[in-house]
Design goal:
The chain has about 100 residues and is mainly β. Helices cover about 15% and strands about 40% of the residues. It has a single domain, classed as SH3 type barrels. β1 and β2 form a beta hairpin.
């Protein structure tokens, strides 16, 4: 009897690159390589988080008002530095984010 392989589930992540790129998107990869494919990726050109919380806060609560978040696109990122798993709250904020003035 053949074993049926399960399709990997996409998970929301925040990815940083060694070139200081910050992206939100969905991946099925484990994030252990130097590249990662994201669907629905959104580039954070400028981001704000509560004072004293740091970059990882983007994966916990998402960017706050005043951030500049680009449109969604599928992308393969190179030179991956970190991959943060997003909370459901952060995912909702990222999806609702826009290019604030």
């Amino acid at each position: 009897m053949a074993v049926k392989k399960q399709k990997a589930k996409k998970r929301p992540v925040v990815v940083t690159t060694t070139n200081y790129g910050v992206f939100f998107g969905y991946t099925t990869e484990d994030g252990r390589g130097e590249t990662i494919a994201l669907t629905g990726a959104r580039n954070a050109f400028y981001w704000k988080v509560p004072v004293g919380t740091g970059l990882a806060q983007l994966s916990l609560t998402g960017p706050i008002e005043g951030s500049k978040i680009g449109a969604a696109a599928d992308v393969v990122l190179r030179s991956v530095a970190r991959v943060y798993q997003c909370t459901p709250e952060a995912e909702r904020v990222w999806i609702g984010s826009s290019w604030s003035k």
